[in-house]
Amino acid sequence: MDQLPEDLLADLDVTGVRSLSGGDTAAAYRLETPDGPLFAKTMLDAPAGVLELEAASLEALRAAAPAELSVPRVIRVSDQGLVLEWINESYGAGGPPTEAECGSGLARIHRADAPHFGAIDPELPQRIGSFPVDLSPTDDWADFLLHRRIEPLLRTAIDTGKLDPAASDLLAELAPRAAELAGPTEPPSLLHGDLWAGNRVIDASGHNWLVDPSSFYGHREYDLAMMLLFGGFGEACFNAYNDVYPLADGWRERVLWYQVPPLLVHAIRFGGGYGNAVLNALQRVR
């Protein structure tokens, strides 16, 4: 218990703490309380506002989520940690019904009204995950994606030696096509922002939960491309999504463009083969 910040546990009547595995930037714990378990995560050297942004993302998604897709309730947030509703996680596959509910639930979140492209709360620090980004409200999604997301990440990746400088010339060649690559104009959607399979949890009843968001208002194909980057979502998920909120023609051809930002993030954070994956994506988009 002495590993957790005191202000995170205050008045929660915590009777026991157990460390949990998983996560590469935070420590995770199960908190025992008289009212049942809670989940806690701590980031003792968290960049300013990161956990506050995660809490705001969870609350925004929770407000928009339909019955078939849940988001854990935020119990407590501080500069160094979060306490959330506990999820009784299942480690088996949910099957086609679970996949379909994930897709239809996400589609309904994406259909909810969103005021602009950019920050869900302009008063909070402007970040996507731990990366600073200009999230000032805008109506131009293609410009936002190119100039405020891809270009800054690409420069950082090159400057830190994680990406071949040849990527800069490839992006310059693609830049005039930014509007085409981003797809048909659509209204903004509330995005999860980091929707790989590890951030979709299936509980013991086969119900879907979304966790660890990095939300902002953007084009919904951003979330779908992330879902396809590392696998883990079945075809029933995408079919059900399309039934509720039909996707524009050619959306699968745009997946590579939308995967460039998360690939860049992984190149910066982890190096390895991710730099080559960025180059390959840009070459294939070209």
TrEMBL record:
Q: Does the keyword Cell membrane apply?
A: no
The family database entries (Gene3D superfamilies) matched by this protein are listed as: 1.20.1270.240, Phosphorylase Kinase, domain 1, Transferase(Phosphotransferase) domain 1
Extract the InterPro entries matched here: Fructo-/Ketosamine-3-kinase, Kinase-like_dom_sf
- Record has Lipid biosynthesis as a keyword: no
> Which keywords belong to this entry?
Kinase, Transferase
- Family of the protein in this entry: Belongs to the fructosamine kinase family.
Q: What is this protein called?
A: Fructosamine kinase family protein
Species in which this protein is naturally found:
Kocuria gwangalliensis
